[in-house]
Amino acid sequence: MAPSNSRTYEEKDRAIIVENIEKQDSTFKLKYFKLHGMAWSVRTILAATGAKWESVFPEDWPSEKAGTLFGVLPVLYETTSSGQTIEIPESETIEYYLARKFRLYGDDAFDEIRVRSFASSIQSLILYYLLRVAVVKDEAYKAVMLERFLKEALPSFLATHERHLEANGRNGHYVGDKLSLPDIKLSIAVNIILGLTGDQHVSKDKTPAIWTVYEAVNAIPSITKWKETEAYQEIAQGNKNILGV
Question: Is the whole model's pTM more than 0.90, yes or no?
Answer without folding.
Answer: yes
